Amino acid sequence: MSASGVLTFRKEERICRKTEIDKLFNRGGSRSMAAFPVRLVYLKTDAEAGVPDVRVLVSVSKKCFKRAVKRNRVKRQLREAFRLNKGILYEQLEQQEGTALLIALIWIDDKLWPTSEVEKKVVNLMHRLSEKIERQ
Question: Which sequence ranges are marked TM in the entry (predicted)?
């Protein structure tokens, strides 16, 4: 299912099930990288029919922001940055058929950042991730 030209973020592209979250965080095969203030955790898996190749979880800790308004703002920034730039990952995965990614974007700073800076950091992480996928 190619979505490189589509700039949407559908429900199917989100990680919601507890089993998938456990697979991403409790399994030994996941890797992480950071571009402060964002940490990216990813797991390369086999593609399933009818499921997008890239699925994402967005998390902002209550330790970072006590107020839900600020947490929601940061989550909105991370989702928007992913939505606009997910083509980077889809282009790489088209070359490697049968491969899918589970990704978690985690906020690790206790300050708000401008949306443009957040997007730069997410794009940086996505480029680094696509290079790692290419080498594997």
Answer: none
Domain encompassing residue 112: 11-128
What's the CATH code of the domain at 70? 3.30.230.10
Among 26-30, 53-57, 60-64, 127-131, which is the least confidently predicted range? 26-30
The answer to whether residue 3 sits within a structural domain is no
Q: At what angle do helices 115-135 and 87-95 cross, to 10 degrees?
A: 10
- Residue written as tokens 């995965």? 93
Give the pLDDT mean for 89-108: 92
The first and second tokens of residue 43, run together, are: 């797991």
Encode 13-34: b = buried (16+ Cβ within 10 Å), e = exposed: bebeeeebeebbeeeeebeeee
Residue 5's pLDDT band, with cuts at 50, 70 and 90, is low
